[in-house]
Write a structure and sequence with these properties.
The complex is a heterodimer of chains A (about 110) and B (about 110). By secondary structure, chain A is mainly beta. In chain A, about 0% of the residues lie in helices and about 55% in strands. The chains are: A mainly beta (about 110), B mainly beta (about 110).
C-alpha cells in the first residue's frame, strides 16, 4: 500500500526565515497531495493541496512543489511568523477513499 | 471552524469494554471518513462511509465498525477495547466518496483505555 515519509520530524527556524518540509510517497498512482496544519489540541486544517497535473502551487506565503518522477513533494513557508508554529502533515491519495498521512513535522518559529 | 462536530470530547474506558463515538458532518456533505491519531503520529485511515455504505477500509481489525445515517452523520464503534486503542479519533466530512475532495475535520474524541 501507499507509504508517505516526511522529513524532518522537528524544524526550528528564526522568525522571518523560510521553512521547508519534504515528503516522499511510494505509490505512483497517487494523484492528490494535501498539506494539513494542526495546532496543539486542535483539529487538522487543510492549508494547501496540489494535484498531479500541476508542478507547483502558491498561496500567499505558502507554496507546494511536486516532482512526480521522483515521487517527492515539498511545502515551503516564507517569511515565517510565530503563528506558523504547529505540526504540519503531508498526505497522499490515489483518488480512492483514503488519505495516507506522513508522521508530521513539528515547526518551531524562534523569536 | 468547520461545521463538523464530534461527541463526546473525552472518554475513559476499561480494557475489554465497548465504545461508540459520534460525528455530525458538515451540511451538504455525504461522506464521512474516520481516522485514529496516536500521540505524536499522523492520522491513520480507519474507514469511510459514503451515502450510508462503507466505501473503503484501512488496516484495522473487524472490532472497529461504523454506521452512517440518512442525515449523513456517523458512528464509530470499537469492541473489546485494547490499551493501544487509546488515541484521538477524528472524523472528517467531504463530498463525493473519494479522498480527493477537501476533508473537513471535527475536533476529535480523545479516548483513553485503562
Amino acid at each position: 500500500g501507499e507509504n508517505v515519509e516526511q522529513h524532518p520530524s522537528t524544524l526550528s527556524v528564526q522568525e522571518g526565515d523560510s521553512a521547508v518540509i519534504k515528503c516522499t510517497y511510494s505509490d505512483s498512482a497517487s494523484n492528490y497531495f494535501p498539506w494539513y496544519k494542526q495546532e496543539l489540541g486542535k483539529r487538522p486544517q487543510l492549508i494547501i493541496d496540489i494535484r498531479s497535473n500541476v508542478g507547483e502551487k502558491k498561496d500567499q506565503r505558502i507554496a507546494v512543489t511536486l516532482n512526480k518522477t521522483a515521487k517527492h513533494f515539498s511545502l515551503h513557508i516564507t517569511e515565517t511568523q510565530p503563528e506558523d508554529s504547529a505540526v504540519y502533515f503531508c498526505a497522499a491519495s490515489k483518488g480512492d477513499d483514503k488519505i495516507i498521512f506522513g508522521k508530521g513535522t513539528r515547526l518551531h518559529i524562534l523569536p | 471552524e468547520t461545521g463538523v462536530t464530534q461527541s463526546p470530547t473525552h472518554l475513559i474506558k476499561t480494557r475489554g469494554q465497548q465504545v461508540t463515538l459520534r460525528c455530525s458532518s458538515q451540511s451538504g456533505h455525504n461522506t464521512v471518513s474516520w481516522y485514529q491519531q496516536a500521540l505524536g503520529q499522523g492520522p491513520q485511515f480507519i474507514f469511510q462511509y459514503y451515502r450510508e455504505e462503507e466505501n473503503g477500509r484501512g488496516n484495522f481489525p473487524p472490532r472497529f465498525s461504523g454506521l452512517q445515517f440518512p442525515n449523513y452523520s456517523s458512528e464509530l464503534n470499537v469492541n473489546a477495547l485494547e490499551l493501544d486503542d487509546s488515541a484521538l479519533y477524528l472524523c472528517a466530512s467531504s463530498l463525493g466518496g473519494t479522498a480527493n475532495y477537501e476533508q473537513y475535520f471535527g475536533p476529535g474524541t480523545r479516548l483513553t483505555v485503562t
